[in-house]
Amino acid sequence: MVEIIGKKVGTTGFGLMGMTWRANPPPFEESFKAMKAALDGGSNFWNGGEFYGTPELNSLHLLRDYFTKYPEDADKVVLSIKGGAKPGQLEPDGSRENVHRSINECLRLLEGKKFLDIFECARVDPKVPIEDTISYIAEFVKAGKLGGISLSEVSAQTIRRAAKVHPIACVEVELSLYSTDILENGIAQACGELGIPIVAYSPLGRGFLTGQIRSFDDIPEGDFRRIQPRFQPDVFDENIKLADEVQKIAKKKGATLGQVALAWVRQHTGRNGLGLVIPIPGASTESRVQENVKEITLTEGEIAEIGEILKRIEIKGDRYPKAVMHHCNG
Question: What is the pTM of this model?
């Protein structure tokens, strides 16, 4: 176990996005099984979003119903929720009015079934100084309604500015074998210097590292990945080569591709000046959760071998379409 905002959490977290933000969300009862499996496996750092779905069905509704059914689990889970987007849009709005609206809506939907341990605004609103946005969230921390403040898709400069206003519980950014940007652009370094844990989202490369996506046609209709640059037919075959090479290491190790991918993210903890790095893989089935929480450890030789693979294989395409990349590393 490690700690975030002074609370003990497992070294692998749990992402809730796929349970409500998809064309055909699974029934809550099915999701509850996966959530129980995560908690039973030690993954008690849960990450959701106000906009992960619709105003009528998102992470908050799922969590409210889960903790209504399992009230004994509320104190076991450390919950982080993203919000702060304009209602009905995915545009960041860091104004006091919208930040307060978003937090109050999250609290309303939770109905007191679970304390909101951490809140973060999704991305950074370029029209509002980060210092101001953080101060608006901090009002709820001071009032005892929130446990802490996180940041999402931020630059190293933004992290340093925000940390001067209020302690930062963690920074949520993308990190996987397919997305190593934060290790090279100063973001991870800033977190390490300030002692801020990194919460690594999409640690399985949005499916590349699960073994389930082998071609563009494997991506379901309506799935966001169908418009993501790295999954396009003209680059897919090149990009899947990375997963194929890492799969060879997994096979020799007697582990799954996903387990090796998650171990690679976790092994950054305490290395090269970094603090805690915790991946938050998403999974909507009990079996997939059980695979993810079965942690393995990479040897120094395996870490070096993966490093050579990363040097050799260049990933084609951005993490998101241009319109979305505009709000990344803000």
Answer: 0.93
